[in-house]
Write a structure and sequence with these properties.
Blueprint (H helix, E strand, L loop, with lengths): L2 H11 L14 E4 L8 E7 L2 H9 L4 E6 L11 H12 L3 E4 L2 H5 L5 H9 L2 E9 L2 E13 L1 H8 L8 E3 L6 E7 L7 H6 L4 E4 L4 H10 L2 E4 L2 H4 L2 H13 L3 E4 L7
Parallel strand pairs: 2-3, 2-11, 3-4, 8-9, 9-10
Antiparallel strand pairs: 1-4, 5-6, 6-8, 7-10
């Protein structure tokens, strides 16, 4: 498959153009020759040097990531940034990034995939940012506690995970915002949700959670943003006929 076809199909599927005014990320092809032929795609959360080097070892022609290299303003290609770009170019490996569109996609997005694993019902858009929804909300047929939710998601937990107002409670109405979504707890309150599932906590919202009674379950920025990446990986392998691999380099946060 030509890289240009890969880029066109994914850009259309993920509706990248709809997020141009909302997302700081340069979504789409960030590095690469659109006329090149590709056979293998590596998938990862971050375009770190370690990720790029591992994708090279795996023989990938393209690296698809959630967090790319270019964000909102021109950046000099020097230092660590130079090392990342140089490694891509030296190995003729393209880089495709998809940030908010991958969080928000109603089928393959990080949040939609978590909702699917949780078995949420009546799932609908939630957490509006600059005019677009980036999360989703829904309800359990039977309320679940935090441990049951974690078990259904199958995420790796560690000492950085944080639960607010979750002890000895079960939850029915849930909002999901992957990554850095703690600030959306106010929208969760307005929607009368019992719980917000996100990646990272934020100090400035903790007292609001404690005083309002809403629960917040923070399961890791990295962990909550693997779901959409893996869903696109499966799609590309099944429908595009390309070989794939997942480069798993968690940061513990």
């Amino acid at each position: 498959m030509r890289l240009s076809e890969f880029v066109e199909r994914l850009s259309e599927l993920l509706a990248i153009g709809n997020y141009a005014g909302a997302d700081m990320s340069l979504n789409g092809l960030q590095v690469g020759d659109a006329d090149s032929e590709i056979r293998k795609v590596a998938f990862a959360v971050d375009a770190s040097l370690a990720t790029i080097e591992e994708a090279v070892k795996q023989g990938a022609d393209v690296l698809f990531v959630h967090h790319g290299l270019f964000w909102g303003r021109p950046i000099a290609i020097t230092g660590r940034h130079y090392a990342r770009v140089k490694t891509l170019l030296d190995n003729n490996m393209a880089l495709f990034a998809c940030h908010l569109p991958l969080d928000a996609h109603a089928e393959y997005g990080n949040n939609a995939q978590m909702a699917l694993k949780l078995g949420l019902q009546d799932v609908e858009p939630f957490a509006f940012f600059r005019g677009v929804s980036v999360g989703c909300k829904g309800s359990f047929s039977e309320p679940l506690d935090a441990d049951q939710i974690i078990a259904r998601l199958g995420v790796r937990t560690n000492d950085t995970n944080y639960a607010i107002n979750c002890k000895d409670r079960k939850f029915r109405n849930v909002g999901i915002v992957s990554g850095e979504g703690a600030g959306d707890v106010f929208q969760a309150m307005d929607a009368n949700l019992d719980l917000l599932i996100t990646g990272e906590s934020r100090y400035t919202v903790v007292n609001d959670c404690l005083e309002s009674g809403i629960g917040m379950l923070c399961l890791g920025h990295y962990e909550t943003e693997t779901f959409g990446v893996k869903a696109i990986k499966e799609l590309v392998e099944k429908e595009y006929g390309l070989s794939t691999c997942f480069v798993d380099i968690p940061l513990g946060l």
